Amino acid sequence: METVEKKIAQQLLEIEAVQLNTETPFVWASGWLSPIYCDNRKILSVPPVRNLICDALCQLILRNYPSVEVIAGVATGAIAMGALIADRLKKPFIYVRPRRKDHGTGAQIEGTLLPQSKVVIVEDLISTGHSALSASDCLKKACADVLGMVAIFSYNFDVARRAFEKSNCELHTLTNYDTLIQEAAEKDYVNKQQLETLKIWRLTPNTWGR
After folding, report:
1. What are phi and psi of 109, to 5 degrees?
2. How far is CA 157 from CA 31, 32, 120, 160, 204, in A?
3. DSSP states of 38-50 as a string?
4. Residue range 30-59: mean pLDDT, rounded
5. pTM of the entire structure?
6. In order of start, what are the domains of the chain with their CATH numbers?
7. Contact, 181 vs 195, CB < 8 A?
């Protein structure tokens, strides 16, 4: 029986939300060189995949956080999916900016958040975990009860794992890097040599290719 992890990984590869290129690495915003690039915004343009992932995230939330009262998206990548989830679950939706806006109200949290509300955060992907955990800290400072976080994809970096453990923030993802590269190899998206490159990169992503 095909697992959810494998099915989601397969769909991300098919719609090219995840692109693999070991010969000409991508440059991340952080400056890291990478043989993989994940753009989950492409999910929004493919209704069957969008519905599949939205349903899977809803099920993940209801299974792990049945007492959730508010859905919070992390700007900007998870705003649309977070809003879709909130609509499906009939819950209020808010989103968290990376920093306070420099105009208007100067808000960082957009929407109405009542103190002590039970919040689940939605993120599109987890790399180092910095932006996701910054959103969590922001919500906690606003007196929200952050139950945990769900995301579509995680690179499974050790730095992210340690960061989530330190922040005492629970994380559940639909799929992850290990499952994705295994699926990529099985479906001939990459050959054995490229697969080995992808495995090596994940060990030292901040220095790879320098």
Report:
1. -100, 120
2. 16, 13, 22, 5, 9
3. E-GGGGGG-HHHH
4. 96
5. 0.94
6. 4-203 (3.40.50.2020)
7. yes
